[in-house]
């Protein structure tokens, strides 16, 4: 049965990859290797140095407090990244559930899924870094055994927390988003009153102040177990405690996986809960309204819309100080506002209500009407983002010509992105599944789209947002002409969307039945 498990999940993984996604994965892997190399180099410099006084000959500011601050900062940063990036999807439970029908025992399938989750490349990468980093701090074999058990407990606690968070957000998403929005706004307000030059004059004083706070962070637990605890009785006690915790956390993880296999988590979309957007949905039309309703009720969509207005917009207002460099950054971030809306609405438009799309093969509603109404709804929602850009322009730029140039630039870059996302909506179709907000690899938007969006905005922004003194009108006319050509071209491509949908998406929808 292990062979059947590996075969099934290998096929599912291979089918899920697209050409652009493979390139994105390779790029991310190379990026991680570079970051990991720099991380290891810094770690060796900070930890392997036999005597701090020897390092101080070259770097006088490198005191014991600075050394401790560096270690605690890196450990906490690594732990926070692990919390957000740890994969809890346990592969594709819906498809793996088929193995139960083929006779695989529930307990064995649960064990396979949990092991596969632990050895997921992302999860394994974090644990390997932990072992490498903390092993350099440890001084005995007993400490190393304690570290390994601590890492197992850490993985189990993160897994248990994220799984419960996933269940909690299914019914309480608005409270989570509200708390997140309030927290970010408070941080933005506080950051405006911080004068960084006042805090960088003395490295030792900064480290001492940081350590007083970092002592109460999770990173201090790892650092203490790996470097400061040397008592054999205490380490032996910790080994027993961590061993017991590991046993109970494995049982908890197995129970969650077993329940998910036997009773899938209900979708966020529930009949009878139209909520506060019901009136707005009716104005979008029958097909467009149902499409927006399914997107609005997906956890990814609400969070992305929220982050756009509590992160990007405040940053734009703070950074808009009138300098040339900041004007370019502000223009780029203005472009990201509608790009985020387009990603949420169009990166995977056929992953929502896909059963209804299948029924169009027999239902009286034309498939063309459903598809075009979905795109029209996406444009109407993205219009809210463009309205936000229009409102912000007078506050950020004084010159009318610059405002026109930026608005045309934002529109033109989004038209380029629209052409890309129109093709992606077909080739990168993915079935929407219930996911946790704590997972940054949410399947609602393919990695290739987020990867491409960043480079499209940045690269085209270089050509779009610079100001030619004395020839700004020429630049504006050129931007207007390019945007008009892209718009006409997109309308023509949109007219043939139904045929592409029939050839590319319909076969994938049938294969999922």
From TrEMBL:
Coiled-coil zones: none
TM stretches of this protein: 20-48, 68-88, 109-136, 142-161, 173-194, 220-250, 305-322, 328-347, 377-397, 403-422, 443-467, 473-491
Keyword presence, Transmembrane: yes
Keywords: Membrane, Transmembrane, Transmembrane helix
UniProt protein name: ABC-2 type transport system permease protein
